[in-house]
Design a protein that fits this description.
Layout (H helix, E strand, L loop, with lengths): L3 H22 L5 H23 L10 H28 L2 H8 L2 H13 L5 H16 L3
Helix pairs in contact: 2-3
InterPro entries: AA-Vitamin_Transporters, EamA_dom, EmrE-like
Protein name: EamA family transporter
Organism: Pelosinus baikalensis
């Protein structure tokens, strides 16, 4: 139904816009307060969307194993990762913080190889090198 690359492009655009709003909003606000406000608003929007789209029935089809993995993903990304990101954004420069945070595919690539048995390829090694080089260049 959706084109994966179109959706990835949209995610890139939205994730590129978001740090600007985050940096502006974090002015005098504590990162934990900001994350709580953000999460409450998103939760309300999701509850309304699930209700309007009639997808509550799909929850019955979800397994306990899948739910556990999604909960762990949410704790890592939407709670711990986002909170660390807000602290970094509050006290750092958007132009330095955002690219470092955006280097998360390097971590995912390495963990995918170690825990999911994904293959190491020449292109993955080159990509990992380029990501690491970009992070090092941001130091200057």
């Amino acid at each position: 139904m959706f084109n994966a690359y179109l959706m990835a492009g949209l995610a890139m655009v939205f994730w590129g816009i978001a740090p600007i709003f985050g940096k502006l909003g974090l002015g005098e606000m504590q990162p934990l307060v900001a994350l709580t406000i953000r999460s409450l608003v998103i939760s309300v929007i999701l509850l309304i969307t699930m209700t309007v789209s009639g997808q509550w029935g799909n929850i019955a089809e979800v397994t306990a194993k899948d739910t556990t993995y999604i909960v762990l993903e949410g704790i890592c990304a939407a709670l711990l990762g986002q909170l660390a990101y807000y602290y970094a954004l509050k006290f750092g420069e958007v132009g330095r913080v955002s690219p470092i945070v955006a280097a998360f595919p390097l971590v995912a690539l390495l963990l995918g190889i170690v825990f999911l048995g994904e293959k190491v390829t020449f292109y993955k090694v080159v990509a990992a090198f380029l990501i690491t080089s970009g992070i090092v260049l941001l130091k200057y």
